[in-house]
Amino acid sequence: MPYLLDSPPIDFKSRPILFIDLEMTGLDVAKHEIVEIAALLVNQPDFTVVNSFYTKVKPLHPETGDPKSLKIINYSAKDWKEAIPLHQALQELADFAPNCFLAGWCVQNEWDFLNHALEQERIPYFYKHQLIEVFSLAYARYYQDPDMKFINLPSVSRRLGIHIEQHKPDSDIRATYEIFKKLI
Predict the structure, then answer these.
(1) Helix 86-96 / helix 108-121 crossing angle, nearest 10 deg
(2) What superfamily would CATH give domain 17-133?
(3) pLDDT for the residue numbered 12
(4) How far, in whole angstroms, is CA 161 from its chain's centroid?
């Protein structure tokens, strides 16, 4: 798969960061599909949000979705009636944030699904193949804290006084970004 990043190197402190959260019909990249994309485009070095992106993606095979996953994301054909095709969503995302780093709570899952979807749709990678995982920052920060028993997005959000509506990708990604800013 070709990379869009055939341009000269960009100082890592100047490269935009795309905080991203995906909702999928399950966790198996070979079987399940992306159905929601939420992202915040952040400039460095001041980590200001310059734009946001949100879309619902029309699944081709919702019948293969994991019932538990579909329930968690509140999937219904009616609510996804206006969703756009995956190719369009990925192209819009690529145009939205070229040459960025990807960041997220446990961003490896997003990475796997994005890589698979871009290859499937024959769209070049639009991001640098390095990840910023906010979970790792929280782990390092709270490892020695005896009061922290769980390191997950809701527990860290609560600890830092950040509002979150769990499994709502736009809320999850904003909480992840706020946690990043407080821990960096």
Answers:
(1) 110
(2) Ribonuclease H-like superfamily/Ribonuclease H (3.30.420.10)
(3) 86
(4) 21
